[in-house]
Amino acid sequence: MIGARLRARGRICALLVLVGIGTVHASAHAELVLRRLSTGDLQTVDPQLWVYGQDGNVVQDLFQGLTTVDAAARTVPGQAESWTVSPDGRTYTFKLRPNLAWSDGVPITSADFVYSFRRLFAPATASASASLLYVVKNAREVAQGRMPPEAIGVRAPDARTVVVELEHPAPYFTEIAVHRAMPVPRHVVEKFGREWTRPGNIVTNGPFTFAEWRPGAYVKLLRNPRFHAASTVKLDAVYHIPIEDPKIALLRYRAGELDLVMSLPSEQIDELRREYGPQLHLTRQIGLEYLAFNVRSGPTRDARVRRALSMAIDRALLSARVLRAGEPVTHCIVPPDIPGHPQTDCADYSTWTQPRRVAEARRLLAEAGYDAARPLVLRYRLNNTDTQRRIGLAVSAMWQPLGVRLELIGADMKSHQQAVLQGDFDVARGAWYAEDRDAMSYLALVDGRGSGVNVSGYANPEVDRLLSEADGTADAPRRMSLMTRAELTAVRDQPIAPLYVYVSRKLVSPRIAGWVDNVRGVNVSRYLSLRDVSTSSTSSPAAPRNNPARRPE
């Protein structure tokens, strides 16, 4: 029954998506228009409220922070033209570019950044990602209501200078600031309140403006002529098109209705290699795919249950038979390619044979009180894509020898994410692609000190103590040692079950110029352009694109 319901939902979603894309196609801009896949429908474009990738991709097109990324996702100056760091690593002084302006022409000054930092941490804002910047002086205390917003360690000595004081040295600060220190327009926020992000109300400071949003169909962005580097932005418009089913996305790419697809059917990877050759980009990234266990309630509160479930997953089989893109398996929270972080086995059972792991998992579940007479029954939440359903079915089969009865609950991405944030799960699919290359950003998944991305609800005083000590030291080797100990302690408790390191699966049209693969998986629209349509090998004669005869609605 569950499989039938999932298939039925998939057919309904497919029809809605096809209608939405047809609308976008008919209303395309006459010039350079990029159509890129979004893996879920938009939830917010507020740069201080977004959490999930589909929102972040749009926000990065609309806003720019003190720092930003280049085409290869390296951190470079953004709204700030330069910055200096104090000898103790605790004070960053940013110098803003001259003549910055919001998209409505209102000047941008350092006061906008002071206001924005205060808003980010204000309890009333309720930013789930504010914890990623708790390194800012007094940020945690402000966010938890123990200090007023004015206590934040951010000040503006003059109109073009922003000074940020940190609680402790944080070599990753400028990387985090790319995505989490974007300004918001005070004059618009205070005028419209919660409605400030609606098209028609919103003003931005990035390369594009927010023109239109049709839920389930597309988000339309237009080039921002007041962006400080507007002359370098080649695209006239960008459409972010939400399609959760990779098979439908592939059909749209084949029809020439998408230029960029970031999610592909696992079982078709070999076929796509043959069909598209260099258009298929498989790139290992610093992303972790994992299962989150609810440690607040239900059977997974018991660490023995969590350890047994994680232990019984045959990760190598998942990678080889289900994923098929060469995903490296892992038992660690911090993925490889994080500079300076040692590679360890993390879990003591990682080198055991599968029969030995299954036998030990059975023993642990029996010890926890589960057997044939009292089977373990769990709700497994996942977002409704073919790959995630296949992973869910494979994990269910791996847990079946333990006597586990698993209910797979599939939903669209937005509903899935909301249910997980509300703690409505026993097991849930999770993915974390940190915004910087620092181990601490991955350990946020098990940080009990108020991390907004710790969806399992895990809190271990020893882990938190180690993380606090790591935060407080400027000694890089000691900091790394403390974080490694915290990671090993958390893996022992298994609040999450790391599965594999993400390998991005993208189809990039030969029409796209400026594309650069990178481990961060960040490809902002600002650096992309389109070659002459006549060079495209993916366009269909029945579905012409960028036709001068077509005009915006």
Summarize the entry for a quick read.
This protein has helices at residues 2-26, 53-62, 110-121, 139-143, 173-180, 186-192, 246-254, 269-276, 303-311, 315-323, 354-367, 386-399, 413-421, 439-443, 461-471, 476-493; strands at residues 33-38, 67-69, 75-77, 80-85, 91-96, 154-158, 161-165, 208-214, 218-223, 237-242, 260-261, 280-293, 376-383, 404-411, 427-433, 496-508, 512-513, 529-530.
**How many β-strand runs?**
18
Strand content: 15-25%
Radius of gyration (Å): 24 Å
Oligomer kind: single chain
Helical coverage, percent range: 25-40%
What is the CATH topology descriptor of the largest domain? Dipeptide-binding Protein, domain 3
- How many structurally independent domains? 3
In the CATH hierarchy, the architecture of the largest domain is Roll
The CATH homologous superfamily of the largest domain corresponds to Dipeptide-binding Protein, Domain 3
CATH class of the largest domain: Alpha Beta
| SS element count, helices | 16
Poorly predicted runs are 1-30, 534-553
Distance between the termini: 43 Å
Shape: globular
Report the structural category. alpha+beta
Model description:
By secondary structure, the protein is of the alpha+beta class. It has 3 domains: 2-39 and 206-259 and 509-535, D-Maltodextrin-Binding Protein, domain 2, CATH 3.40.190.10; 64-191, Dipeptide-binding Protein, Domain 1 (Dipeptide-binding Protein, domain 1); 284-503, Dipeptide-binding Protein, domain 3. It is 31% helix and 20% strand. It has a 6-stranded mixed sheet with strand order 11-16-12-15-13-14. β13, α12 and β14 form a beta-alpha-beta unit. α9 runs antiparallel to α11 and α15 (461-471) runs antiparallel to α16. It is globular. It starts with a helix and ends in a 23-residue tail after the last strand.
